[in-house]
Amino acid sequence: MRLTSLDVFRGITIAGMILVNMASIAEPNVYPPLLHADWHGCTPTDLVFPFFLFIIGVAMTFSLSKYTEENKPTSTVYWRILRRAAILFALGLLLNVFWNKGVGTFDFSSIRIMGVLQRISLAYLFASLAVLNIPRKGLWILAGVLLIGYWLAMMYVPVPGFGAGVLTREGNFGAYIDRLIIPSSHLYKGDGFNFMGDPEGLFSTIPAIVSVFAGYFTGQWIRNQPVKSRTSVGLVLFGIGCLIIGWVWGLTFPINKKLWTSSYVVFTTGWALILLAACYELIEVRRIRRWSKGFEVMGLNAIALFVASVLLIKILVKTNIGSGEKAPNTFDWIYNNLFVPWAGAFNGSLLFAIVTVLLWLAVAYGMYRQRWFIKV
């Protein structure tokens, strides 16, 4: 069984990721919804990453459904899972090398170890192993333990030099654990972290695993429901419930993407359920599909588009037009000469981002027509 609405949801998410990644380069000339929250809080941009993990969990329901107590996975299955996780992690490292030193150079002395693909890799690996070896009830218990345990650790375990419950970039417990495990030269240096933590760190990957579990639980529920509007309504009601629980939890453990707080997991799961419900109702129930074809073809090659689009951004930022110290990088030259003069600074950054999404949509269509589906 293939859930077309899930492919569309994945395509919407990858399009959103490309949009916000490209727009954010022109900061501060960017509309606030296209930027991450500076620290506590949640913008539409902060929904993109957890949506990816949620989607992985839903897809896992279908890819691993054939394995049961009577039909246990073989060593080949585990090898495929490990191989996929390793490739994702390696791709993330490769992107970090390019960002650190520029395209065509390989210096691992100060490469950032963690990143978006690395977190996806680890969350996918541990969630897959758990799904294959722990009964459904046990998975629910494990998800609760991970979220509550992370909350208790972050709020009540003292950090040397800072104390307990300090949720700053340097003083939070997760950053402290990351500094113990990862050499400082390999931690994130931007956004005020200054090699003292990482927004995709090891410790904060623990609750990110639950974002995958949330998708898996959702996929299991959908598989047992009729293709009717009541299923869509059920998803919306679950989503609203998660939004309320996440918001209330956020009053004591703030919603924060860069810490991937437990409240953030629940809150973003709520939005994921609501968007999936909309896609499910339109595509699976009402069979209204013409609007969604572009998103579907992007969703079928999501990882390839992610890696290629990030590489393009790195090339635009790391290469220059002209020579000399004042030569603008390629992005700034295109932005200031082609978009700003007739659209303005803010609209120019948005238009540049939209054009970029359309470019990758064209690439995705070309791959779709050639039946090129790159799987990791």
Features:
single chain, 376 residues, mainly alpha, 13 helices, 0% strand
Summarize the helix and strand pattern as letters: HHHHHHHHHHHHH
Query: Which structural class fits the helix and strand makeup?
Result: mainly alpha
| Helix content, binned percent | 55-70%
Q: Identify low-pLDDT runs.
A: none
SS strand fraction: under 5%
Question: What is the total tally of β strands?
Answer: 0
Principal-axes shape call: globular
The span between the termini is 20 Å
Quote the average pLDDT. Answer: 93
Number of helices: 13
Largest sheet: number of strands, sense, barrel closure: none
Q: Rounded to an integer, what's the Rg over CA atoms?
A: 21 Å
Description:
With about 375 residues, the protein is an all-alpha fold. It is built from 13 helices and no strands. It has helices at about 5-25, 50-65, 75-100, 115-135, 135-155, 175-180, 205-225, 230-250, 260-285, 295-300, 300-320, 330-345, 345-370. The longest helix has 27 residues, at about 75-100. It is globular. The two termini are about 20 Å apart.
Indicate the topology.
Elements: H1 4-24, H2 48-63, H3 75-101, H4 116-133, H5 136-156, H6 173-181, H7 205-223, H8 229-249, H9 262-285, H10 293-299, H11 302-318, H12 330-343, H13 345-369
Brief synopsis:
By secondary structure, the protein is mainly alpha-helical. Helix content is 64%, strand content 0%.
